[in-house]
Design goal:
The protein has seven helices and 21 strands. It is of the alpha+beta class. The chain has two domains: 281 residues, no CATH class; 37 residues. The radius of gyration is 28 Å and the shape is elongated. 40% of the residues are buried.
């Protein structure tokens, strides 16, 4: 895989986590971070996926997303409670997870055709001193990854703007809660020769110190469009959401259960499942992020480890020689009855004639 392909994959993955659907105005923020681009450019994400693990002191977040973008020059800002280490993750990770947790298909049969079309299927802290401190700069392929600390949201926004990370109006306001709580920031910049960054991007792998499992979401309240996020939480037991945002929008449990270590092949999943085999998958849709996303995502152990797997229902028509079985059997029955009646009449006439 070329550097260009890797970088495009990474950014699309991150963008999916961080931006809303493409709207008439430039995207301001998305999911766990804020995505920024040059003035007049548009970037949007239509889905966001995140694998989350926590070993008691360190959290690991693997991000994947798909984006729509009209620019080849963009950057991403991700807040974390402690400085984060960034790396590229395997592209096969999320497809394998989708296969492992896909809804179980339940097939039922009908004997009569439907008058409607088709068969039916079931649904879906800053350090003291300067207001902004550069803690680390790292080159990750064609990505420039900068770890920042800030004690002033406006100063952080100004620093980003002066270093080529174009901030939209109101971004400093969206950052203020994280600055007040002393969080840190991973700024990721990518410039390629491609015409745009649309498509699915390679996942990003972040690790950072944390007292508990948290998924940063508050910047997404500034997203101009709807947001969809699916979290895959690996732990010793089933988990449930504890944050106020859990009651907003439309949230659903998709999967809960223990994963057999022999059922996974991705190196990241092999290491994760070996330590924390219970997987809880939830998804949430926000039609109005500004009013529905009021907190980061937080989690705690659920009262029980009851397994769950979503089901989809498919109704199929039984057929005989390619025709719906019900009408065919009725027709055969009627024909047989007529033949029987006709045979009986012939027999009676012959008998009467013989007599």
């Amino acid at each position: 895989m070329t550097r260009l392909t890797v970088c495009r994959l990474v950014l699309a993955t991150v963008l999916l986590v961080l931006v809303g659907l493409l709207g008439p105005s430039p995207a301001r923020a998305c999911a766990c971070g804020g995505f920024v681009a040059a003035d007049g450019e548009q970037v949007a994400a239509n889905a966001e996926y995140a694998v989350l693990t926590h070993d008691g002191s360190t959290e690991r977040v693997l991000l994947s997303m798909s984006t729509l973008a009209s620019t080849p020059d963009a950057a991403l800002l991700i807040p974390t409670p402690a400085p984060a280490e960034a790396a590229l993750a395997e592209t096969a990770l999320f497809p394998e997870l989708e296969q492992l947790t896909a809804p179980e298909q339940v097939v039922t049969y009908r004997w009569w055709p439907r008058l409607t079309s088709g068969d039916s299927a079931g649904a879906p802290g800053a350090a003291g001193g300067a207001p902004v401190s550069v803690l680390k700069v790292r080159q990750l392929g064609d990505l420039e990854v900068t770890t920042l600390a800030a004690s002033d949201a406006t100063a952080l926004s100004d620093w980003l703007d002066s270093h080529g990370y174009v901030m939209r109006d109101g971004f400093a306001t969206a950052l203020q809660p994280y600055v007040s709580e002393g969080w840190f920031y991973t700024a990721i910049r990518l410039t390629t020769d491609a015409d745009d960054l649309s498509g699915a991007l390679q996942p990003l792998d972040l690790t950072f110190s944390s007292d508990g499992l948290v998924y940063p979401m508050r910047l997404s309240a500034a997203a101009p469009g709807s947001q969809f996020v699916r979290t895959f939480v690996f732990a010793d037991h089933r988990v449930r959401r504890t944050d106020p945002t859990a009651d907003q929008g439309h949230a659903d449990l998709r999967f809960a259960g223990r994963i057999d270590p022999t059922a996974v092949t991705s190196s990241a999943l092999v290491s994760i499942v070996g330590e924390q085999p219970y997987l809880t998958v939830t998804e949430q849709y926000f039609s109005a992020p500004s009013g529905q996303i009021v907190s980061d995502f937080t989690f705690e152990q659920a009262p029980s480890d009851t397994p769950y797997r979503r089901s989809t229902y498919v109704v199929r028509t039984r057929t005989v020689l390619g025709l719906p079985a019900g009408p065919v059997l009725v027709a055969v029955g009627v024909l047989a009855l007529n033949l029987a009646v006709a045979g009986a009449l012939v027999w009676r006439r012959r008998r009467a004639s013989h007599a």
